[in-house]
C-alpha cells in the first residue's frame, strides 16, 4: 500500500522510549556469542551475500565502478561458491555503468540520491535526481532524510519528503538513511525509524558512511526493534541496512546475531538485510581463507575496492 502524501499519520510522541542502558547491555551481550567452524563459514558466506559493495567518493570513475562490479559478481575468483554480493551502490551518474557491467546477473544496482550526503537540496531536485537514477537503471534508491527538519520537530516535512521520493521510485526499492550519528539519542533513532517505515521505506539504513558514530551495535538493535514492532503492528516486513564503520568479519557476524535474535531467521536474507561496506568484503574473504586453510592470506591477494 502506498503511503499518503501531505500529512504525518502518526504522533511520534507515542513511540516508546528507549532504555539506553538496556539496549547497550543487550547489544554487548549478543556480541559475546561464539561462532566457530562450519557455523562461522556459513555466517561469512551469508554476510558476503548481503553486502552492498559501495563506492561514494569524489574520485569515482567508470573504470573503478566496472572493477567493483567484477568483484561483486565474483568476490573470490575461481570459487563460484562465494558470492555474488547483493548489490553495488554508486552515485547517480554511474548507475548506467554499473547496470551494463552487471547485465544478466542478480546483483542489484543501488544509487544514493536526494542530495546525498546532507539532504539539503530543494524537494524538486531530490525528486528529479531520484527519477533520473531510476531511469538510468537503479533497482534501489538510498535517500537521506533532512536531519535538520527532523531535529527541529518538523516531522511532517520529513514524512512528506520520504513519501514523495517513494512515489518517484516507481518499482525501485527505497532505503531511507537516518544518519544516526547526527540524531544524537536512541529515542530520536527510534522515532526516525518509525517515521520512515510509516512513510513507505522498504529498508531503513543507519548512515551515509560520512558521519561517525554510524552503525554501532546499539543503534542497529534500536532499529531492529523498531522493525520488529512495526511488523507486529502491520504485518509488513521492512529491511535493515547498517552502513558506516562495518569493516571486520567479527562485526558482520555480530550483526547477523542481532538480526537472528531480534527478528528471527526470516530476516536473514539479502532481501531483508544488507550491510553497506567498501572494505568489509576483503576481511570476510581473509577469514574464509583462514577457515579453509588454517592460515591467513595477505591482503595483497585481494583487490582493493
Secondary-structure class: alpha/beta
Beta-strand share of residues: 5-15%
CATH architectural category: Alpha-Beta Barrel
Number of domains: 1
Structural description of this entry:
- 44% of the residues lie in helices and 11% in strands.
- By secondary structure, the chain is of the alpha/beta class.
- It has one domain (38-292): Aldolase class I (TIM Barrel), CATH 3.20.20.
- The chain has an 8-stranded parallel β-sheet with strand order 7-6-5-4-3-2-1-8.
- Strand 6 (203-205), helix 9 and strand 7 form a beta-alpha-beta unit.
- The chain is globular.
- The mean pLDDT is 93.
Layout of strands and helices, then pairs:
Elements: H1 20-30, H2 37-49, E1 51-54, H3 62-73, E2 87-90, H4 95-101, E3 108-113, H5 123-135, E4 140-144, H6 147-151, H7 155-169, E5 173-177, H8 186-198, E6 203-205, H9 217-234, E7 239-241, H10 249-262, E8 275-277, H11 280-293
Parallel strand pairs: 1-2, 1-8, 2-3, 3-4, 4-5, 5-6, 6-7
Helix pairs in contact: 1-9, 2-10, 2-11, 5-7, 8-9, 9-10
In short:
The protein is built from eleven helices and eight strands.
Which structural traits does this protein have?
8-stranded parallel β-sheet, TIM Barrel, alpha/beta, 305 residues, 8 strands
Amino acid at each position: 500500500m502506498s503511503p499518503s502524501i501531505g500529512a504525518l499519520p502518526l504522533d511520534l510522541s507515542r513511540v516508546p522510549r528507549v532504555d539506553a542502558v538496556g539496549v547497550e547491555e543487550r547489544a554487548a551481550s549478543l556480541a559475546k556469542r561464539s561462532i566457530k567452524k562450519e557455523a562461522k563459514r556459513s555466517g561469512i558466506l551469508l554476510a558476503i551475500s548481503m553486502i552492498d559493495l559501495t563506492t561514494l567518493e569524489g574520485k569515482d570513475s567508470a573504470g573503478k565502478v566496472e572493477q567493483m562490479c567484477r568483484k561483486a559478481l565474483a568476490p573470490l575468483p575461481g570459487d563460484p561458491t562465494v558470492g555474488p554480493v547483493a548489490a553495488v551502490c554508486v552515485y547517480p551518474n554511474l548507475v548506467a555503468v554499473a547496470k551494463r557491467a552487471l547485465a544478466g546477473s542478480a546483483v542489484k544496482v543501488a544509487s544514493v540520491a536526494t542530495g546525498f550526503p546532507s539532504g539539503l537540496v530543494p524537494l524538486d531536485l531530490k525528486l528529479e535526481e531520484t527519477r533520473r537514477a531510476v531511469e538510468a537503471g537503479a533497482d534501489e534508491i538510498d535517500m537521506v532524510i533532512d536531519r535538520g527538519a527532523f531535529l527541529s520537530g518538523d516531522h511532517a516535512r520529513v514524512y512528506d519528503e520520504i513519501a514523495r521520493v517513494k512515489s518517484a521510485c516507481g518499482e525501485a526499492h527505497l532505503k531511507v538513511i537516518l544518519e544516526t550519528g547526527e540524531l544524537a539519542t536512541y529515542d530520536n533513532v527510534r522515532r526516525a525509524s518509525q517515521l520512515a517505515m510509516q512513510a513507505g521505506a522498504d529498508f531503513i539504513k543507519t548512515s551515509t558512511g560520512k558521519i561517525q558514530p554510524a552503525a554501532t551495535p546499539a543503534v542497529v538493535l534500536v532499529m531492529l526493534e523498531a522493525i520488529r514492532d512495526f511488523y507486529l503492528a502491520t504485518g509488513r516486513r521492512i529491511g535493515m541496512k547498517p552502513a558506516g564503520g562495518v569493516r571486520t568479519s567479527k562485526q558482520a557476524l555480530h550483526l547477523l546475531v542481532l538480526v537472528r535474535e531480534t527478528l528471527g531467521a526470516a530476516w536473514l536474507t539479502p532481501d531483508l538485510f544488507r550491510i553497506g561496506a567498501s572494505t568489509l568484503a576483503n576481511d570476510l574473504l581473509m577469514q574464509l581463507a583462514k577457515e579453509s586453510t588454517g592460515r591467513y592470506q595477505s591482503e595483497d591477494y585481494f583487490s582493493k575496492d
